[in-house]
């Protein structure tokens, strides 16, 4: 299995929501299409097969937008998140540096707790997901994300830097 690693590895799964209906006046209320639901299920199955054999993540951070909540609903059919947080900073035009700093702080604050964070799922939007991968990995390739795609980052506590392991594009 590609997701097997040492006990010290922390995996961040940066996921773009599934396909959403056409833009409208209120971007926050756009819903997933049927295709978006199927994309989210396929991405979840890939994540389970490769990185979450126990069908669990420690933390899921999601945007407050409807399509990200619906994407997490689809993911949750197969993967249980011990904790789910809606985060107002992970919106399409959010600050990747702010979100990266927040993730780093959350990871480091949990290191010596009874429940350290080993697998974190972030469900958000373009262009934030692209910029967030760059900020976490301190590389500036600005990868494009297809809908329901997932970038897998191995985060090092020692260097406080991530390494892009793979990018599932569906």
Structure commentary:
- This protein has 170 residues and is an alpha/beta fold.
- The chain is 31% helix and 23% strand.
- It contains four helices and eight strands, in the order βαββαββαβαββ.
- The strands form two sheets. A six-stranded mixed sheet has the order 5-3-6-1-7-8, sandwiched between helices. Strands 2-4 form a two-stranded parallel ribbon.
- The longest helix has 17 residues, at 34-50.
- The chain starts with 9 loop residues before the first strand and ends with a strand.
Give a summary of the structure in a few sentences.
The protein has 170 residues and is α/β, with parallel strands linked by helices. The chain has four helices and eight strands, in the order E-H-E-E-H-E-E-H-E-H-E-E.
Secondary structure layout:
Elements: E1 10-16, H1 34-50, E2 56-57, E3 59-62, H2 66-75, E4 80-81, E5 84-86, H3 96-110, E6 119-124, H4 128-137, E7 150-156, E8 161-168
Parallel strand pairs: 1-6, 2-4, 3-5, 3-6
Antiparallel strand pairs: 1-7, 7-8
Helix pairs in contact: 1-2, 3-4
Organism: Alteromonas stellipolaris
Protein name: Phosphohistidine phosphatase SixA
InterPro entries: His_Pase_superF_clade-1 (IPR013078), His_PPase_superfam (IPR029033), SixA (IPR004449)
Give the rounded overall mean pLDDT. 93
The beta-strand count equals 8
- Residue stretches low in confidence (pLDDT < 50, at least 5 long) are 1-6
Using the alpha-carbon principal axes, give the shape.
globular
Query: Can you count the helices?
Result: 4
Order of strands, main sheet, comes to: 5-3-6-1-7-8
* Helix content bin: 25-40%
Instruction: Give a short account of the largest sheet.
Output: 6 strands, mixed
Helix and strand composition category? alpha/beta
GO molecular function: protein histidine phosphatase activity
Protein name: Phosphohistidine phosphatase SixA
Organism: Alteromonas stellipolaris
Pfam family, one: His_Phos_1
């Amino acid at each position: 299995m590609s997701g097997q690693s040492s006990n010290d590895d922390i995996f961040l799964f940066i996921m773009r929501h599934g396909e959403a209906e056409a833009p409208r006046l209120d971007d926050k209320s756009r819903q997933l299409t049927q295709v978006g639901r199927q994309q989210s299920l396929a991405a979840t199955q890939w994540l389970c097969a490769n990185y979450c054999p126990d069908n669990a993540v420690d933390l899921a951070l999601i945007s407050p937008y409807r399509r990200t909540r619906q994407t997490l609903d689809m993911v949750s059919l197969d993967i249980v998140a011990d904790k789910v947080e809606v985060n107002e900073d992970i919106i399409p035009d959010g600050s990747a540096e702010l979100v990266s700093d927040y993730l780093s702080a959350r990871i480091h604050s949990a290191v010596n707790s009874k429940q350290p964070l080993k697998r974190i799922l972030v469900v958000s939007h373009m262009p934030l997901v692209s910029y967030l991968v760059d900020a976490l990995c301190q590389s500036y390739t600005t990868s494009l994300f297809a809908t329901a795609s997932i970038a897998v980052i191995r985060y090092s506590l020692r260097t406080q830097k991530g390494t892009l392991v793979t990018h599932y594009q569906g």
